[in-house]
Design goal:
Four Helix Bundle (Hemerythrin (Met), subunit A); mainly alpha; single chain
């Protein structure tokens, strides 16, 4: 497929993600950090965040599947996930907030509240 056609398909995908609310205007700033010396920067940042998040969500699922939930461990993973979404704000000039990690952070805040309440149903809803 010609390069122009691939770029057009990428633009259509990105625009649809904007319309769905998965991306916001700040995503464009993340794209601006990518240059010829780091052509895969955006993909790398998103991939690292997704891999790290997937690992933590897998652990959270295992913990919540237990008959007796250890809310301190759950809270520790939620705290780590929240930190992952926030930490990159400072390290990469906030790129994860550009790809919806602000929503991850907000969900983690609510999740932590459910942990403090030992509310398994609330944790599972998130």
């Amino acid at each position: 497929m010609p390069l122009m056609a691939l770029r057009e398909r990428l633009n259509v995908l990105v625009n649809s993600m904007f319309l769905e609310g998965l991306l916001d205007q700040q995503f464009r700033q993340l794209q601006m950090l990518q240059d010829a010396s780091s052509p895969g920067f955006v993909a790398e940042v998103i991939t690292l965040f997704c891999e790290d998040s997937e690992r933590m969500l897998t652990e959270l699922t295992k913990l919540l599947d237990q008959a007796v939930v250890d809310y301190q461990k759950v809270d520790a993973y939620v705290h780590q996930l929240k930190g992952s979404s926030s930490r990159c704000l400072y390290f990469f000039f906030a790129p994860f907030f550009y790809v919806g990690a602000q929503n991850v952070k907000l969900a983690c805040i609510q999740f932590k509240q459910f942990c403090e309440e030992n509310n398994k149903e609330g944790c599972e809803v998130l």
